[in-house]
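Thread: quick sanity check before group meeting

JM: Hey all, I'm pulling together slides for Thursday and realized we never actually wrote out the predicted structure for the chain we discussed last week. Dropping the sequence here so it's in one place. If anyone has concerns about the input, flag it before I start.
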Amino acid sequence: MAGILISAESQAEAFVKGNPKFTEVSSQIFDGLSSRGRISCLDATRAVDILFQQLSTHLDSIGIEVAKPSSKELQSLFAAAGHENSGLGLDKAEFNDFYAKVVIYAAKKAASGFAQSYGRGILVGMVGLMAVKGALRSVPLVGLLASPLLGLLPTLLVGPALGVAATYVIRKDGLGAVRDRLFGVNPNKKDQFQKG
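JM (edit): ok, ran it. Output follows.
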């Protein structure tokens, strides 16, 4: 299992490093921070902070929390890139190696945050869709008529999508707002049937 994860991580790193947009962004960051063709480890750490700040800003809006790496995690990222004792700082190639590790680490953190935020919703969406499809198929006449249509809704694709959508709406607006939208209740209007 560990071999599969290492292989997947090395393929992800090759993909990231081979991406022209990554190379462009990494070069821009390096050029903005470098002096005499090298950047200090402190500047590289600031670049990581900026990346995670921007990532957090974008993902917070959809309910996914991504925490900045701790100093210990940053040290392990430097070590993974082979630059743990880099007193002279990093040159452009070393910074690209380091920043690729950071981007992969950020993707792992974002995926973990997504699973924590939406995992239950995905599971409930799949189980709920399976239950509804099973219930509809078990009704004698309805099941016969609905079976071809239900076959068009693949549970493994539609269930998670429903779960993510429901979780997003509930987190964004709350259950009260969902109820109000579904049943047409307007909280700004007072009870129409009050005597007065």
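AS: nice. The chain has two domains: 2-116, 117-183. The first helix runs from residue 2 to 18.
JM: adding both to the slides.
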